[in-house]
Design brief:
This protein is about 85% helix and about 0% strand. The protein is globular. The relative contact order is 0.25. It contains 8 helices and no strands.
């Protein structure tokens, strides 16, 4: 199979794995704050390790320090800008529905919808640069780097999907749609961005270091801006921190085994 076909298969599989995170919500079981916070911690640990060992270090090996750091800053600040835009979009949606102010269960539901949109938007924002990095790696002939990225991204997509599926399911969406939306949140941005990244190499050679830094910056920002605060607000900070460490170690071990 040619590099482009291989890239499509690999990025599609990595994106589809996101849907596995929604499986626990399909059985109607109540997800406790402890489990939810631990899942966020696990995803955060995997993402931090993936940022460093799967993106920044390979980027430094193939490019200059300034290229990778430029990507980190652009990716990180880009996600922060995105996180400021999403709540405004949600507020416009509420105004169009005629909600000058909601009370009781309506306010609670609005909060769940807002949380789902925020987490879904954050996941989409960091899935896109990950797909971009994979596409550029495949197009640059760095198949080993691309496959390592695919594995670590697939690993993190499962807890990412869970973090997205829980608030979606609590907002009253059907189980089938929860599974669909969760899967699409990983599949669409990763595949589309990988195709764009593959084509980008034809225009500009040597863009992998910047793209890798961009993906790493977005992932670091989403962990610190969304996942850490969300996992430490319900009294289960120890469980979230322990899961974070497990996720970090898991990713480092997987990366070491794959690259041996």
């Amino acid at each position: 199979m040619d590099p482009f076909g291989t890239m499509l298969v690999v990025t599609t599989v990595a994106g589809l794995v996101t849907g596995l995170g929604a499986v626990p919500t399909l059985f109607g079981a109540r997800v406790s704050h402890r489990v939810y916070d631990a899942a966020l911690g696990l995803a955060g640990g995997i993402m931090i390790a993936a940022s460093v060992f799967g993106l920044i270090i390979p980027g430094l090996e193939l490019g200059a320090l300034w290229e990778v750091m430029l990507g980190v800053f652009v990716g990180g600040f880009g996600l922060l800008v995105g996180n400021r835009v999403i709540p405004h979009v949600h507020e416009e949606y509420r105004q169009r529905r005629g909600h000058g102010g909601t009370e009781g269960s309506d306010a609670s539901m609005d909060d769940r919808v807002r949380r789902a949109v925020l987490i879904g938007g954050a996941i989409t924002l960091h899935n896109a640069p990950e797909g971009l990095a994979m596409g550029i790696a495949f197009a640059s002939g760095l198949e080993e780097v691309a496959l390592v990225l695919a594995v670590v991204i697939g690993l993190q997509n499962v807890p990412d999907g869970f973090a997205f599926a829980v608030p979606i399911s609590q907002s009253g969406v059907s189980a089938r749609r929860v599974l669909l939306y969760t899967t699409l949140s990983g599949l669409v941005p990763q595949v589309v961005a990988s195709v764009f990244g593959f084509g980008l190499v034809a225009v500009a050679q040597g863009v992998f270091p910047v793209a890798a830094g961009f993906a790493a910056g977005a992932m670091l920002a989403v962990v610190l801006r969304e996942m850490v605060p969300s996992s430490h607000g319900h009294g289960y900070a120890d469980a979230a921190t322990a899961a974070f460490l497990v996720g970090f170690v898991l990713l480092v071990v997987v990366d070491a085994v794959i690259t041996v």
